[in-house]
Input
Amino acid sequence: MNAFRSVGAQLALALALVVAIALGIVYAIVVPRLERNLVAAKIDALRRASEPIASTFDVAILGTPDLRLDVGERLSDISSRTNARVVIYDPLTLDSLSVIADSRQQRTSTAVQDDPIALEAAATVASAQGTLTRNDERYAEVAFPLYTSSGTVILFSSSLRDTLANVELVRRRVLLAAVPALIVAALLGYGLASVFARRIRRLERAADRIAGGRFDEPVVVSGRDELAQLGIAFERMRGRLSQLERARREFIANASHELRTPIFSLGGFVELMANEDLDEDTRREFLATMQEQVARMQKLATDLLDLSRLDAGQLVVDREPLSLAPLAEAVADEFAVVAQATGHRIDIEGEAEALGDELRVLQIARILVENAIRHTPPETAIRIVLGRDAGRASMTVEDEGGGIPAQDADQVFERFYRIEGNRASGSGLGLAIARELAALMDGALVLEVEPGRTRFRLLLPAGAPLREPALV
Ligand SMILES: Nc1ncnc2c1ncn2[C@@H]1O[C@H](COP(=O)(O)OP(=O)(O)OP(=O)(O)O)[C@@H](O)[C@H]1O
Ligand SMILES: [Mg+2]
Output
């Protein structure tokens, strides 16, 4: 597998990307905002320190020649208190000022000559503040008009060097932190992904095992996360497939066994028939038995075909309105000869309208009536009762034979299941087919257990009740 396609590489890359984005946000948004806040705080502090000084500054000393000598000293005193350069201006014109005093008297004042903030304060006759860059250095400045009539202005200018140095430090730290943070994120991502990858590979191996038909080894699950849930789902699938596989093997074994018996029997009879010394009566007797075996094989083949179609979902049923009474009568007629031979009496009561497939309903009725004749002693009464049950159409086939023991009630519907000790057993497929057909028609086949009585009830979606034609 391409190394960059592995979960490890992808997760490592994703984590590194997240860290890079987070650091980028810090760098692009947080750092400039920090700078703005620090500068604003600096201007605020400067304003707070200088405002009381400006408001109490005695302008008179500027005009008094004796006191002028003191001005320089006073300004350096104010400068050290406010930690700012202090300059006093007089307006020359509307957009030019002349410096009349500067706390840095020893140096030239040309740099602060036309300070825009001082100009603004002079022009608006109100305090002004802001930042500006002078000789490659940024300053925070606050200016106040001193003598409103003459337009004298006092300016406090404080370097932002320290403040900006702090911001620069943060900026550099963020950039420096990015390298180890990205490495750690990538390593962490790779490590975490390796743990997941190991678990995914275990599931992959389990899936391969199941795909290869090896259902014996359970899927081992650790943890409680989504991967563990996936593992549990795999384990469920394995259990179900293993069950199906067992059922399939059993089905094939049972079906072959069922087919083998009549084939062996037929083989034996064919050999006996080859003996020409047989008298006519024996030959006829053998032929009758052979016909029975062939009929048994035919029924078995049809049943197996039905089951395989049911399993494959290939059996399509109609959903047409049906009157159940004529169907019950047709089945009773089919079995009339057999029933007469064994002294069984078949009665039909009631009527019901259902929705279903005529051929399949006939098939179910045949299975139930055949069972009622075959698995009960001679002379047993059989009733087919038609009616409604909880809004559904019902066909109940009941007999007064020995009944089915409660512990067998569920299993009689399983494929190839026959109750032990039953006199005349078939292949045990009839009820399994009947129940699946009923379900296919959105109905159900239920067994009501009662000692001495067997009652199978077929429930189908109810059809519209027959209406008398409306009188016009
Ligand atoms: N009316 C009944 N009275 C008593 N036992 C019954 C009755 N109907 C079914 N059984 C029992 O249930 C078992 C399963 O019935 P089912 O119809 O599935 O199979 P079968 O009749 O043995 O074979 P076939 O596939 O030929 O129908 C029967 O073998 C029988 O033991
Ligand atoms: Mg049967």
